[in-house]
Amino acid sequence: AAAAGAFAPVGRRLFLQCWLCMWLFSFLLAGFLLFLLQFAPPGYLALVGGAVYIDLSLPMLFFSTCAAYLVFWLFRRLFSGQGASAEPLRLTIAHQGRQAELFAKADTGNALREPFSGLPVIVCQAKTLSGLAPAAADEFLRSGGAAEAGAGLRLVPFQTLGGDGLLPAFKPDRVVAAKTGQELECYLALSAKPLSAGQFSAIYNPELFPKE
User: Fold this and answer.
1) Residues 158-189 pLDDT 10s
2) For residues 194 and 186, what is the distance between their CA atoms, to the nearest angstrom?
């Protein structure tokens, strides 16, 4: 139930992988805490409301945080198929007889999925898809989110350091990676704000797309 609440809706195979990873890391965390309890002095660890508190000095907390970031960075570099520093990917988008090309940058921080289908979301600058995206999407952006979502639109919730909100999204007929020819099944969300200074006009998470 916990895995379904955290990861659904996703495919059966991906859900099984997520479920196994969740239990694996739960066991690793439990084993690590039991190991600490064997050697830690009394009062060093406390479990309050399901959260584990460790009595660390300020210097130890600083260096432990830096070490954790380093471990996650190395893990991502070793096991991620395409890092966030990879060159932008050229995408060909077709929808209702119209076609557009844009460059998308890999960003593993973009974990957006369309809520009902669970499909990954590529965030695009609205002006790059002008004339191809549904007119209701432009109206939604111009109104600042006050207008209702029109036909063919889905609203994707997002949250960043600067705040949260909803992005209008639609499912195009085809999205193809020009370099590999791989067809990406996804939604395109429109952002009124520019995503770069001109180097790319969309961001996508390569880890959300299965490799062919």
Assistant:
1) 887 667 889 999 999 999 998 888 899 999 99
2) 21
